[in-house]
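Memo to structure team: turn this sequence into structure tokens by end of day. - J.P.
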Amino acid sequence: MGLANGTWQAKTGEVPRQWWVVDAADKSIGRIATEIARVLRGKHKPQFTPNQDAGDFVIVINAEKVQMSGNKLDEKRYYRHSRFFGSLKSLTAREMLEKDPEFVIQDAVYGMLPKNKLSKSLLTKLKAYKGGTHPHAVQKPQPLEIKN
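Reply from structure team:
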């Protein structure tokens, strides 16, 4: 026996989307990543459904000014390789923030998302930018407050 009316499930096109902007200057990368992952999944909405994309879009500005606690700037490493012998490359977090700060934000948020087929499509709704400007003014993003 089930419920008389059943359980309501959000459909991908039914839930209205909103745009949020986050200023990452002088904020901890972990706290920013958890809050962004929550908004991308849609857990802040009453229509949240775990197996559907009910989340919003998030814009991150000042990605190069994000803070890391402890010695992470010098000890955390980002690895990449081309699957050829001897092709392993390694950069510290400090070097990666100078080279590609958008990747640092995306990698931290990806680590906070569930590991399933939905996570890659959720990550496409994250837009990270170096500097204080972004090209999404037409969408009228609202500021998302994150405690430090």
